[in-house]
């Protein structure tokens, strides 16, 4: 079974745009789980433009499913994760000024660094995952770091699939099979959506978890607008 972990970064983006507490992140995270999602993902960035570090603490007692915290393991992030103790930490090599995550780790070049932070998280009983492009050498490198899982960076798959190139899933399938053979769990995320998720799931062996945010929140607007507009019209009669 593949677990759905909902990334709530975009809820925090909307909240921060007005400086208040609407939408309320904790209510949304509670509702998402009550509606059946099996996890909540956050990706606090150093500039706290969406998820604030304090949100990570506030969500801890609210998340009763799997709690996944993603980010670049700078010292401040490592301390945060060790204090919050989520179910899983996903290490992402994102630059401070990146609009969003745009590449996986070079697990060979950064093997020693990754091995060190991963062992620190493992001592704290936190499952570890490393964000990687679908390149076999990077999966083998991830194994060397001691990570429990990889998260396949699915941006290329998503953009190619949208253009009709279904073969774009093949490197992901190959890497997932390799990971399973090596005894590493397989997660995936970035730009997955209602349009591409079924095909991706059907083609990726052993897919344990997907984390989805941007498309899922956008789709919630598209699919929820009619209901809300009609509720306003009803009150204005
Ligand atoms: C690792 C990954 O693909 C997601 O965490 C994505 O980066 C979401 O982050 P943003 O919401 O900041 O784009
Ligand atoms: N790890 C990927 C994630 O959490 C969500 O990415 P996206 O759906 O916002 O692109």
User: What order do the helices and strands follow?
Assistant: EHHEHEHEHEHEHHEHEH
Low-confidence stretches: none
Tell the overall outline: globular
Helix share of residues? 40-55%
Class inferred from helices and paired strands: alpha/beta
User: What strand order characterises the main sheet?
Assistant: 1-2-3-4-5-6-7-8
Number of structural units classed as domains: 1
Terminal-residue CA separation: 47 Å
CATH superfamily: Aldolase class I
According to CATH, what is the class? Alpha Beta
Task: Tell me the number of strands.
Answer: 8
List the ions, cofactors and other small molecules found in this model.
1-deoxy-D-xylulose-5-phosphate, the ligand NCC(=O)COP(=O)(O)O
Work out the strand percent. 15-25%
Please report the number of helical segments: 10
CATH architecture: Alpha-Beta Barrel
What is the gyration radius calculated from CA atoms? 18 Å
